[in-house]
Structures are given as structure tokens and as C-alpha cells.
Design goal:
The chain is an alpha+beta fold. It is 47% helix and 16% strand. The chain has a 7-stranded mixed β-sheet with strand order 2-5-6-1-7-8-9, sandwiched between helices. A hairpin with a 4-residue loop joins strand 19 and strand 20. Helix 15 runs parallel beside helix 17 and helix 15 packs parallel to helix 19. The longest helix is centred in the middle third of the chain and has 49 residues.
């Protein structure tokens, strides 16, 4: 089996297992043959009888689904219907039997019920015994009741799968269609309450699909492709939307309209199916392949005859799909039974295995720990301060734990840790010294926290003046720093003495930042490498680390003051340069960048005036980047010539204004912003007028400071002419000042 198919099996299994099981009928009051029970649920004239007859013929030459009748009644029923559909009869004379051709006709509506029995072979490998049931379609009408209706419902309720048959000819009769839908929904309620999953596969078969616009062949038989099967788990609106969006339906407008009409008309039936099972499919089939010939009429209905050539479309697909789904469901049911058995065994195993674990971890193991914790709470968690009586009680509880039979047999790995803990309390000869050391360390920490009790530096010397408290602390630490160098007492007292030396060095060398760093480095080293570091030493370390933080803050403040002072000096120097300069590239360009850098280094709390001046200056500079009007005067144009002007975006063609000439002495307004190009055209007096487009001389000014190039002389080198232009007020006078 391919991986994709395996995945679908488990996906369906998960869907089945995730919902409450529905009812599959109560104890049957009728007797039915053994085998897979396939229900054919359809109203009068819905095509059930013709479908089974044509299916029997089609499956004689099929590879994926073969059917062989197993009883005479079923064989006789199929043969009788076959002769009517194909117009065959027999005649025998003088011992010879031959087929005769006659008129074709559809079988009359089923008047009596018939049990159909046959074997089905799926994919040439699975041999199944199948039982189905044919009956008068009036028995399933919503208004009918009686023994026949009860018998049909009984068969359907015990079915392994059901095909619901619907005649699309009734689509135009709304009341009849809804009556059929109501009986479909009623049947589903018999299978399972409408708030639970459907326990069996359900197929909807639209018979006589040849009358639907757009229906053309086998590729339209199965509505829901296998890769889109998950949409059946959605609600009806999403289901309908995704079906109609599918390319094979949307590409054929006539077929899309037919499908939509069928789904909408049957929406109440489909609505109670989707979301309750993945074993649902819709089929469009034709038992004849083309619309039958109308040959007459009877009361309330038309009479049809089969077409000349019967070519069934899609009749095998519903039955093949249903049998495959039933086989898969049975396989899932077996897996579920195995899973339940495995789950039961697992639960039993968990319970049996958990009993000793629960007894050990809930009763035996916590008892000595609880005794120890209760005693340590009286001493704020410091075991070194415990009394001899309390230690004996702790030792006794751990010994009792180690001697338990269950611990020795099943949890022997816990005995060694228990002995280690017990040994700690049995060898307590230095306990009082440890307690004394802890008190000294706490005394050290209290001195560090209060700078008013620090040792004072002797003026003019690199030493400290120690008072009685300081001398007592250091002398006591020295008395404890003796004996075995690997002992806890020796190592902890040594760390405290080292920190006192660094603390004293810091007081002597307050101006040296490295002195505070040495304290911080020693604390971090001890915390990384000392296994017996306790809470009192951590408190001392926290107190000393505050010193390092204070010194680091002082260093940062000093560095910032230096940077700020330099920035303030640079500000004053740049201010003079700006206010003396008339170069636009410097005042509006280079100076701006330098001022921004200086502003970042100034101290906001001290240099507020300078920062405010820079902010105002930058706003004044920003005005030059926006479009503004400038008034200029043409002071001099040689040889009675005249000028044309055009201002535009960088790289764009100049936009010359017709009827716009400017002579010597003229004034005009020019709208410009930084980055705009300025075109100036010079027309000689004798040259033809082209309004700047074909001038005698041209000059292009570009860049952020282009307008400043206009103030004063503007030379046209190709014709050897120079004009003089001034601005009111002067551009250089308009440059911003830093105040």
C-alpha cells in the first residue's frame, strides 16, 4: 500500500475515534442473510433497480470490481430486468433456443421486496459476500408507515454502508425534493443522533445525470477528489464553496451550475453529513448514458424507453467506493479493539508498576527529608547551627529509611545518597566554628553596607586606621584560618580574609578604579569555582559588588563630563566659523553634520542652551530644503540680450515658459528648493525667439546650492557673455546664524 493511502486510513481512523459513536440500530426484528449489508435508499423511480441491473452487467468485464450472483432469486431478478432493458427474449422450436429482439423498456416499479445476494471481488484480491435489498420506493416516503417501511428501516439501520439515490428530475418540484431530503435526514437519524459521528460510509448517488446540463462523462462521476477529502470535515457553506472553486467544476459553467443546483437543493441532507464523517462521497451516474426516449404518459408521470444504445456512466464507482470504505472501517474497528486491549494491559501494568513507586516516593522517601527540613526550619536552614539532639533525630530517620526491605531490593541506588547526608550530621566536630565564621562574615557585610563605619585612611600614608571593631573582625578570621587546607572552614575563612584585603586596598586607593574591579573579579571567581559557597558569603559578595557598581557609575559620569566639555568647546569654535562664513556648502552642509555630532555629545542636563541653539539652527537649515520663492533682479545683460529661466527636478527636461523674456533691470520671483536644477538661457538681440529652447547660450546650475551660483556673475562661455544677477534680500544674508 502506498504511503498516501496509509495516511488516509489513519486520518479516517482519527476522525472516527474523535467523535462519540452513533447508534447502528437496535436488535433486528427481521432475519437477513449473512454478509456485508449494503443499503440502497431511494424513493420510487429513483433508479435503484436499473442501477443494480446495469451494475451487474458492467462488473462482468471489470477489473477493479467483479460481481457474481449467489442465489437464484437474485439471478432471476437481474435476468428479467436485463431482458427488458436490452429488449431480449427467447424462443425455442425443434430443440433450438435463440434470442429474439423486441421492444426495450424499463422495469416496472418494484412491487415486492427482494433480497439481493452476490459475491464482490475488489481489485482481484478481496472477496466479499454482499447482501442488498430492493423494494418499492414508496416505503421510504416520509408519509409512509407500515410493515414494509419498518422492514426497509430495519435493513438500513443494520447496514455496513448506504447509498442514497436521488432522481434529479424532481429538482423542479421543490416540495417533492424536500420530502425526499426529509426522508434522507430521517434515515441518518436512525443511524446516529445528529450530534454524533456517522458510524458507516455514506454515498449520495445522483442517478439520471445525463439530463443535467454540462454532464459529459466518467470524469464527472466522483465529485470529491481524494486529495480534497478533508473538506467533508467542514460545515456546509465551506464545503459548497470549495467544491465550486475546484478547477474541474469551475472550468465548465454549465456543469458548475448543475452541481450547485443539486447541492443547494439537497443542502439539508448534506448539512447533517459533512463534519460528521470523512466517509462521504457524491456520485453523478447515468444508467443509460443518454436521456431515455419518451414514449408516452401515464397518470402523474411520463413513460420512457431505454435509448437504442445503453452506455452506462460511472455505475461501478459508488459501489466500489462503498465496499472499499466498509473494508477500511472494519480494519479500523479491529485496530480499535486491539488498541483498547493494549490500553487495558498498559493501564494494568502502570498500576502494578506504580504501587511500589508510589509507596517509595510518597511514604518512605519523603519521611527522613521531612524530618530534616522541619528541624532546619528552626535554624533558618543553617544545618551548622543544629543541636546534637536534632542531628541524632535526623540520623535515625535516614538509618530507618536505608534498612527498609523495599529500599534495599528495589531502590538501592538511593541508599548511597542517604548515607552521605547521614555522614554530614554524624561528623559535626567543627560545627560551632562554622557558625562563628558565618557570624563574622555577616559582620563584615554590615560594615561594607555602612560607609560611616569604614576604616579611615591615615593622611599621607598608604594604610588604614582600624578601630576596635575592625581589629576584632580581622583577628577572629585569622584564628579560624588554620588546620587542614582542604576543610570547609579553612577555605571559607580564606575567602573572607582575601575580600577584606581587597576592601582595605580599595579604601586606600579610592581614586584608582582598578581597586573596585579587583573586588568584583574576586567575587565572581569565588562564585564560579567554590562548591561550598553558602548564603552568608553571597550576602557579603552582594554588598561588596555595590562598591564596584558605584565606582563604575562614577567613571561613566567622569567620561561623559569629559566628552561633554570637548563637545561644548567644539560648539563654540564651530559657532564662530558658521557666523563668519558666507559659503552655503559649509553653512548648509558640512556645518550641519558637525553640529549633529556635537549635539549627541552634549550633556542635556547642563548644556540645554547649546542644544536649543543647535535645534533652532537645524530648523532654519531645513527651510532651504522646501520650495520657497526668491526675488531676483537682472542687473546687467550685455548687447541688449534677454534671459529665460526654468527650475525643475534633477534630471528632468527644462520647462520653458512661452512669452517669458527678462531684460536688464527686470525683477522676477523664482521658486526653488535644494536639489532642483536651474536652467538659464541667453538670447542675443538679433537671434530668433524660441523662448529658451534654442537659445544662443545656456547654463545649467545643479546641486543643493545651485541657486547660490546665480548670485553675482553668470558666464555663458560658448558665446563669451556674462550677466549679473542679484537677490532681494541677498542669499548670503539669508544664511542661518548659530546663536
Amino acid at each position: 500500500m502506498k504511503f498516501g493511502k496509509i495516511f488516509k486510513v489513519f486520518k479516517k481512523g482519527a476522525k472516527v475515534a474523535s467523535k462519540q459513536k452513533g447508534k447502528k440500530g437496535e436488535v433486528s426484528q427481521f432475519s437477513w442473510p449473512a454478509g456485508i449489508r449494503v443499503g440502497l435508499f431511494g424513493h420510487d423511480n429513483s433508479g435503484k433497480t436499473v442501477y443494480m441491473t446495469v451494475l451487474n452487467e458492467e462488473c462482468k468485464i471489470s477489473k477493479k470490481l467483479q460481481i457474481s450472483v449467489t442465489d437464484n432469486a437474485t439471478a432471476g431478478e437481474f435476468l428479467s430486468n436485463y431482458r427488458l432493458l436490452w429488449g431480449l427474449g427467447t424462443s425455442g422450436e425443434a430443440g433450438t433456443v435463440v434470442d429474439l429482439r423486441g421492444e426495450k423498456s424499463f422495469p416496472d416499479s418494484t412491487s415486492t421486496d427482494k433480497v439481493l445476494q452476490f459475491n464482490a471481488i475488489l481489485d482481484r484480491s478481496k472477496n466479499l459476500s454482499v447482501v442488498s435489498y430492493d423494494y418499492n420506493g414508496k416505503a421510504v416516503s416520509i408519509t409512509e408507515s407500515g410493515e414494509m417501511s419498518d422492514k426497509v428501516m430495519d435493513f438500513m439501520s443494520g447496514s455496513d454502508g448506504i447509498l442514497f439515490f436521488f432522481d434529479p428530475k424532481t429538482l423542479g418540484a421543490e416540495l417533492q425534493t424536500q420530502a425526499h431530503v426529509a426522508s434522507f435526514v430521517n434515515m441518518l437519524e436512525q443511524l446516529a443522533p445528529l450530534d454524533s459521528r456517522l458510524p458507516i460510509p455514506i454515498g449520495l448517488v445522483i442517478t439520471k445525470s445525463d439530463i443535467l446540463p454540462g454532464f459529459s462523462g466518467d470524469n464527472q462521476t466522483i465529485l470529491i477528489d481524494s486529495e480534497d477529502e478533508q473538506i467533508v470535515s467542514e460545515n456546509f457553506e465551506i464545503f459548497l464553496e470549495k467544491i465550486l472553486e475546484h478547477s474541474k467544476i469551475a472550468s465548465n459553467p454549465d456543469w458548475a451550475g448543475s452541481v450547485r443546483n443539486v447541492l443547494v437543493k439537497l443542502r439539508e441532507f448534506i448539512r447533517v453529513v459533512v463534519g460528521r464523517t470523512l466517509d462521504f462521497q457524491i456520485f453523478f451516474v447515468s444508467n443509460t448514458g443518454q436521456e431515455p426516449q419518451k414514449i408516452g404518459a401515464d397518470v402523474g408521470r411520463s413513460i420512457y424507453a431505454p435509448p437504442d444504445k445503453i452506455r452506462a456512466i460511472g455505475v461501478k464507482e459508488p459501489f466500489y467506493w462503498l465496499l472499499n470504505s466498509i473494508v477500511r472501517n472494519r480494519r479500523i474497528s479491529r485496530i480499535r479493539k486491539v488498541a483498547k486491549f493494549v490500553a487495558l494491559i498498559s493501564c494494568l501494568w502502570i498500576v502494578l508498576f506504580s504501587i511500589p513507586l508510589l509507596y517509595h516516593f510518597k511514604l518512605l522517601y519523603p519521611k527522613p527529608i521531612d524530618v530534616e527540613n522541619r528541624i532546619l526550619e528552626q535554624y533558618q536552614g543553617n544545618r551548622l547551627s543544629t543541636s546534637e539532639v536534632d542531628r541524632r533525630n535526623i540520623i535515625r530517620e535516614y538509618q530507618k529509611y536505608e534498612n527498609r526491605w523495599l529500599v534495599r531490593k528495589a531502590f538501592s541506588d538511593f541508599i548511597r545518597p542517604s548515607r552521605v547526608i547521614r555522614d554530614v550530621y554524624q561528623h559535626f566536630d567543627i560545627g560551632w566554628q562554622i557558625t562563628k565564621l558565618d557570624n563574622l562574615i555577616l559582620e563584615f557585610a554590615s560594615i561594607v553596607k555602612d560607609s560611616t563605619v569604614w576604616p579611615a585612611k591615615i593622611p599621607g600614608a598608604d594604610s588604614l586606621e582600624l578601630n576596635e571593631r575592625h581589629v576584632g573582625l580581622t583577628a577572629s578570621l585569622d584564628t579560624l584560618h588554620v588546620g587542614d587546607e582542604s576543610s570547609v572552614l579553612f577555605m571559607r575563612s580564606g575567602r573572607a580574609i582575601k575580600l577584606w584585603e581587597l576592601f582595605a586596598n580599595y579604601i586606600v586607593r579610592r581614586d584608582d578604579p582598578q581597586a573596585a574591579n579587583l573586588i568584583n573579579e574576586q567575587i565572581e571567581f569565588d562564585r564560579r569555582n567554590s562548591k561550598n559557597l553558602n548564603d552568608t558569603e553571597r550576602q557579603l559578595g552582594d554588598a561588596l559588588k555595590i562598591i564596584a557598581k558605584i565606582e563604575e557609575k562614577k567613571k561613566e559620569v567622569k567620561e561623559k563630563e569629559v566628552v561633554s566639555s570637548e563637545a561644548l568647546e567644539n560648539f563654540e569654535g564651530l559657532k564662530k566659523k558658521i557666523n563668519r562664513s558666507s559659503e552655503a556648502s559649509f553653512v548648509l552642509g558640512t556645518a550641519v553634520d558637525e553640529l549633529k555630532e556635537i549635539r549627541g555629545d552634549l550633556d542635556p542636563s547642563r548644556d540645554k542652551a547649546q542644544i536649543s541653539a543647535i535645534r533652532k539652527y537645524l530648523k532654519d537649515v531645513e527651510k532651504w530644503s522646501k520650495s520657497r520663492k526668491y526675488t531676483l533682479k537682472i542687473e546687467s545683460v550685455p548687447d541688449n540680450g534677454h534671459l529665460h529661466f526654468s527650475v525643475g527636478i534633477d534630471g528632468a527636461d527644462p520647462a520653458w515658459a512661452d512669452s517669458s523674456q527678462y531684460f536688464q533691470g527686470d525683477e522676477l520671483e523664482l521658486t526653488w528648493k535644494a536639489g532642483d536644477e536651474i536652467y538659464i538661457a541667453f538670447d542675443e538681440a538679433t537671434a530668433p525667439e524660441h523662448w529658451g529652447r534654442d537659445a544662443s547660450g545656456k547654463r545649467l546650475l545643479r546641486g543643493n546650492f545651485a541657486i547660490f551660483e546665480m548670485e553675482g556673475e553668470v558666464a555663458f562661455s560658448n558665446i563669451g557673455k556674462t550677466v549679473v544677477i542679484s537677490f532681494k534680500p541677498g542669499l548670503k544674508d539669508m544664511l542661518p546664524k548659530l546663536k
